[in-house]
Design goal:
two-stranded antiparallel ribbon, eight-stranded mixed β-sheet, 401 residues, AcylCo_DH/oxidase_C, Butyryl-Coa Dehydrogenase, subunit A, domain 1, Butyryl-CoA Dehydrogenase, subunit A, domain 3, 10 strands, alpha+beta, Butyryl-CoA Dehydrogenase, subunit A, domain 2
C-alpha cells in the first residue's frame, strides 16, 4: 500500500491548491462570515470547482464521473482545509453522492433518483443529508418515522446539524417506516417548502440547519430503498455507512490541511517573534514542541491516505460481490474502520496543533484579526461532525475486534 500521492494525484493537489489560494482564500471565508451569507459559500466559485471536475472525481463514468481514485478527494480536501473553503463538496458530493452511487451499484436506485445523482456530479443540484437527531453523532439513533398512508408517507421528527441544508435542492432523509423499531430507510425529498428549516448558529460560520417534520406528506417515489440485503443489514444502511465513511475521511483530510497550515503559520511566527532580542524559535522547549507537531502531522497523513486507499475497494468490487451481502458488508466495515482511525487521528492532531498555535502566538492567537482563530473554530466543528474522537475510538475497536 503506497501512502503517497502518485503523479496524477500530485497534479490534482497542485491544481486544487493554486485554484483555492487564488479564488477562495481565507480572506474570502472571513468576508462571507462578515456578510452573514446564508449559503456560506460562493455559488460562482462552486460552479468553477464543478467545472474543474471535482464534483465527479471519484464517481463511476457510468454516472458522468471520472473514475478517479478516492485519494483524489484527499488531495482536494487537504487544499480545502488549507484555505478554510466552504462548499457543497462534503455534504452533497461526498456524502449524499456516495450514498446514491452505492445504491445505484446494487440496483436499488430508480431512473429518477439516478438523475439526481448525475446532477450532483455535474454540480447542477445540491442535496443535504438529514441524519442527526441529537447533540452527538449517533447514526443508529433514528426516531424520525415515515408512516405509510394513501399516496405516500407522512414524516414526523426533528433533524439537527443538517450540513448545507439552507438552499439545498433536496434532502436525503434517514427515517424508519411506520415504527421506530423498523430498519432505517432513505427518502429523497425536494426542498420545496413543505417542511420548516431553521438556521443554526455554529462557531465556524457554516451553513447548518435544523428541520422539523410535522406529519409532512411525501410521495411514494421519495423512498429510495429499504430492501433487505441480509438479516443483518439492509441496502439503505449499507449505503449510509458508505456515505458516512467517505464523509469522515474527507473531514480528516480537511483537518489535516487546516492543521498543516496552522503549523506553518506558527513556525513562521517562531522565526520572526523576538523576546529578549532573541528569536523565540531558538528556544529549545519550543523547538521540541514544534518537532512533535511535525511528527504527528506525518503520522496523520499516513492514516488519512491509508483510509482513502481502503475506500478504493469500492471501485474494485465485482458484481457478484455486490450481490453477496457478507462480502459487501465486510468491505464496508473495513472502510468504516479505516475512516474512524483517520478521523480519530486527525482529530487528535488538530486538537494538539490548534492548541499549540494559540499558545505559541500568545495573546494575539485568540484575536479575530489573526487567522489562527478561524482555523481553530473550523477544526472544533470538524472534530465533532460525523462523530467525535470518542465515537470513532469506540467504532474502530468494535469493527476490528
Amino acid at each position: 500500500m503506497k501512502l503517497i500521492y502518485n503523479e496524477d494525484e500530485r497534479m490534482l493537489a497542485d491544481i486544487a491548491t493554486e485554484f483555492l489560494e487564488s479564488k477562495s482564500p481565507v480572506a474570502a471565508k472571513r468576508a462571507l462570515r462578515d456578510q452573514n451569507s446564508d449559503l456560506c459559500f460562493d455559488p460562482h466559485i462552486w460552479q468553477e470547482m464543478a467545472q474543474l471536475g471535482w464534483s465527479g472525481i471519484s464517481f463511476a463514468e457510468t454516472f458522468g464521473g471520472h473514475g478517479f481514485s478516492h485519494k483524489g478527494l484527499a488531495a482536494i480536501f487537504e487544499a480545502i482545509g488549507n484555505n478554510l473553503t466552504h462548499s457543497p463538496m462534503l455534504s452533497s458530493v461526498v456524502i449524499c453522492g456516495g450514498i446514491l452511487q452505492q445504491l445505484a451499484k446494487t440496483n436499488d436506485l430508480s431512473e429518477q433518483h439516478i438523475s439526481w445523482l448525475e446532477q450532483i456530479i455535474s454540480g447542477d443540484k445540491r442535496i443535504a443529508l438529514a441524519l442527526e437527531e441529537g447533540v452527538r453523532h449517533n447514526p443508529d439513533h433514528i426516531t424520525t418515522t415515515a408512516v405509510k398512508v394513501d399516496g405516500g408517507y407522512r414524516l414526523s421528527g426533528d433533524k439537527v446539524m443538517v450540513i448545507d441544508g439552507y438552499g439545498a435542492d433536496a434532502l436525503l432523509i434517514v427515517a424508519r417506516i411506520n415504527d421506530i423499531t423498523a430498519p432505517i430507510s432513505l427518502f429523497l425529498v425536494p426542498n420545496d417548502g413543505r417542511f420548516s428549516h431553521k438556521k443554526m448558529s455554529v462557531i465556524d460560520s457554516g451553513n447548518y440547519t435544523s428541520v422539523k417534520f410535522e406529519q409532512t406528506l411525501i410521495d411514494d417515489e421519495s423512498l429510495l430503498t429499504s430492501t433487505l440485503v441480509s438479516a443483518k443489514v439492509n441496502a439503505a444502511k449499507a449505503a449510509l455507512d458508505v456515505g458516512l465513511a467517505l464523509g469522515r475521511l474527507c473531514l480528516a483530510a480537511e483537518m489535516l490541511g487546516a492543521s498543516s497550515t496552522l503549523f506553518n503559520m506558527t513556525i513562521d511566527y517562531l522565526k520572526t517573534r523576538e523576546q529578549f532580542d532573541t528569536k523565540i524559535g531558538t528556544f529549545q522547549a519550543l523547538q521540541h514542541r514544534a518537532a512533535k507537531c511535525f511528527i504527528e502531522l506525518e503520522l496523520t497523513r499516513s492514516a488519512v491516505i491509508s483510509g482513502f486507499v481502503m475506500a478504493d475497494k469500492l471501485h474494485s468490487l465485482f458484481p457478484e460481490q455486490l450481490d453477496d451481502s457478507v462480502a459487501l458488508l465486510q468491505v464496508i466495515d473495513d472502510i468504516s474502520a479505516a475512516a474512524s482511525l483517520a478521523k480519530w487521528k486527525a482529530g487528535q492532531l488538530s486538537d494538539m496543533i490548534s492548541g499549540e498555535a494559540v499558545q505559541m502566538h500568545g495573546g494575539i492567537g485568540v484575536t479575530d484579526e489573526l487567522d489562527v482563530g478561524l482555523y481553530l473554530k473550523r477544526i472544533r466543528v470538524a472534530q465533532m461532525s460525523l462523530g467525535d474522537s470518542d465515537f470513532h475510538l469506540t467504532q474502530y475497536a468494535d469493527l476490528t475486534a
